[in-house]
């Protein structure tokens, strides 16, 4: 067992032995390192003022991701490189092309949000050679500005490439060496650090994780901390023992087979959006609308499932697609339909010491049509008021099979069993769909909360089923927002 967390801060190796398990990267930077360029705005991963970039080794290359420093725990940086706005300028003080573009395009007024914008643009600069305006908008969706307006910042995102090619900057020149240094930090040891009797434990294998959970079933499992981070920053909760999944490489795998995708529980949304989006375009678009890039770089599919939130975005889509879940406890594994995992609000079919190991997403069969719709108050970076997902197969104009799942209509993500039964075997006509709508009221009893009223949710759920019919009954109907950056389906 290793008793230090090791990572690169810029080019400097840092080794930390004593640390509060839930100390955020933001607090460590500002309070302990006096790197105050990174700002605190919302402290909940929403405004982007705290955005930093975390580099991870991908072979002999580096992959750079924007993350919210306000909700990421410092100890999770083990084996990574951490870059802040202070690290971008050259040794002679010359600004990086990203920074110079912000100056040239007047992308800053009060300046409070500017470092976060710069770091989001830097991650884009490192990962994308020729983004269009839509791609720049997506990269900046997690950064809020009160005073400048976004047009000058988007202009900076275009100009930065004219000031220097990504392949020519000093980070590209150092990429192979940085990857080599990070490779030297990798090992198969379990990392354990802490302070004040509280612990942060990070195993390197699923076997080690399973053994640790049998010994410490009370430990709080953390992957992206996009939810747990708010327990700390907003609720001031004290977590005695963190068990972190981020070093378990076999939990991050996404393996495509002839039948579908075996997805490790610690696979992030950013890693999923490509392969899942190609097989399920609407699911890919749903993932693209989970938080912003900072959230998608940290949040995981296993965390979204294990959290059990009734408005989690991935479970309705996974349930509609027929996904199965694999749970592990010690050496034993069991697999169950994902819909059976959710028992009641706040209660899942998971025993002490058991954890979500993987989820299997089957591929669509010939003739299957899949749609997913997320309803929010704002289009990007918002939590669902309602999410509906549908898998439909027609034969000779009739419903041969249909799976309907909603989030936000009950205490758990749930299938509309009576509605499905009312449709299967029937002609796929608007009249039949409308005749089946009363079954939704028997399938669900929506609640009213600050996101939406029960009546609104019930009405929208019915409308989404009608929208599915409009999109699949005949020639393609224009039902999507004009200008929506969708992974357009066939």
UniProtKB/TrEMBL annotation:
Signal peptide: none annotated. SUPFAM superfamilies: 2Fe-2S ferredoxin-like, CO dehydrogenase flavoprotein C-terminal domain-like, CO dehydrogenase ISP C-domain like, FAD-binding/transporter-associated domain-like. SMART domains: CO_deh_flav_C (SM01092). Residues 3-88 form the 2Fe-2S ferredoxin-type domain. GO terms for molecular function: xanthine dehydrogenase activity. NCBIfam families: xanthine_xdhA (TIGR02963). This is Xanthine dehydrogenase small subunit. It comes from Inquilinus ginsengisoli.
């Amino acid at each position: 067992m290793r008793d230090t967390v090791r990572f690169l801060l810029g080019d400097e190796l840092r080794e930390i032995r004593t640390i509060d398990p839930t100390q955020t990267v933001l607090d460590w930077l500002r309070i302990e390192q006096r790197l105050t360029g990174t700002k605190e705005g919302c402290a909940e991963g929403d405004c982007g003022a705290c955005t930093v970039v975390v580099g991870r080794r991908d072979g002999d290359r580096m992959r750079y991701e924007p993350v919210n420093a306000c909700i990421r725990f410092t100890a999770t940086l083990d084996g990574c490189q951490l870059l802040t706005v202070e690290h971008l300028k050259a040794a002679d003080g010359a600004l990086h092309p990203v920074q110079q573009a912000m100056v040239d395009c007047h992308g800053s007024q009060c300046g409070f949000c500017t470092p976060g914008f710069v770091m989001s643009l830097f991650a884009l600069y490192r990962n994308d050679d020729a983004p269009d305006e839509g791609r720049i908008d997506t990269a900046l969706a997690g950064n809020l500005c009160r005073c400048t307006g976004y047009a000058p910042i988007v202009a900076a995102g275009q100009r930065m490439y004219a000031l220097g090619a990504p392949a020519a900057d000093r980070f590209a020149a150092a990429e192979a060496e940085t990857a080599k240094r990070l490779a030297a930090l990798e090992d198969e040891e379990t990392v354990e650090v802490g302070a004040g009797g509280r612990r942060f434990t990070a195993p390197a294998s699923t076997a080690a994780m399973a053994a640790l959970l049998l010994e410490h079933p009370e430990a709080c499992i953390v992957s992206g901390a996009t939810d747990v981070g708010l327990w700390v920053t907003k609720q001031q909760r004290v977590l005695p023992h963190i068990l972190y999944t981020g070093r378990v490489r076999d939990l991050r795998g996404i393996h495509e087979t002839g039948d579908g995708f075996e997805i490790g529980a610690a696979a992030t949304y950013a890693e999923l959006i490509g392969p899942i989006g190609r097989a399920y375009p609407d699911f890919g678009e749903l993932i693209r609308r989970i938080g912003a890039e900072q959230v998608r770089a940290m949040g995981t599919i296993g965390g979204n499932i294990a959290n059990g939130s009734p408005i989690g975005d991935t479970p309705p889509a996974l349930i509609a697609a027929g996904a199965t879940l694999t749970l592990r406890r010690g050496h034993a594994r069991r697999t169950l339909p994902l819909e059976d995992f959710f028992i009641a609000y706040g209660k899942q079919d998971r025993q002490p010491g058991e954890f979500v190991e993987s989820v299997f997403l089957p591929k669509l069969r010939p003739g299957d049509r899949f749609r997913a719709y997320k309803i929010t108050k704002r289009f990007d970076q918002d939590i669902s008021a309602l999410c509906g997902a549908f898998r439909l197969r027609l034969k000779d104009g009739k419903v041969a099979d249909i799976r309907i799942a909603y989030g936000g209509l009950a205490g758990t993500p749930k299938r509309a069993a009576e509605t499905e039964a009312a449709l299967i075997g029937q002609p796929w006509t608007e009249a039949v769909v409308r005749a089946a709508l009363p079954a939704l009221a028997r399938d669900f009893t929506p609640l009213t909360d600050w996101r939406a009223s029960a009546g609104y949710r019930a009405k929208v759920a019915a409308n989404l089923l009608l929208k599915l019919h409009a999109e699949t009954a005949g020639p393609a109907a224009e039902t999507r927002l004009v200008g929506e950056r969708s992974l357009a389906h066939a």
